[in-house]
Structure prediction request, 99 residues.
Amino acid sequence: MIRLILNLLWFVFGGWLSGLLWLFGGAILALTIVGLPWSFAAWRIASYSFWPFGREVVWRDELGQFDVGTGPLGLVLNIIWFLFAGWYIALSHLLIAVA
Prediction:
């Protein structure tokens, strides 16, 4: 019951905007061939932005997956992410938090 109340409060006071921006960022990334892997990740994060309480984050190390986010390839991919979606999503989170 507490999770439901917290999720509803979160959604009303900014979660809806945060989730919509993640969905929009994923849609922009889906338009590019290079951004397709990030679009699915952004849509997963959107679900966390809409309803964060009661969810559990699992670290990649526990799953045994290869981490692309390190090294020169990770740097290039992070720059692409920042240019196409990361900057405005980070700004929106900051503005929602201040409000």
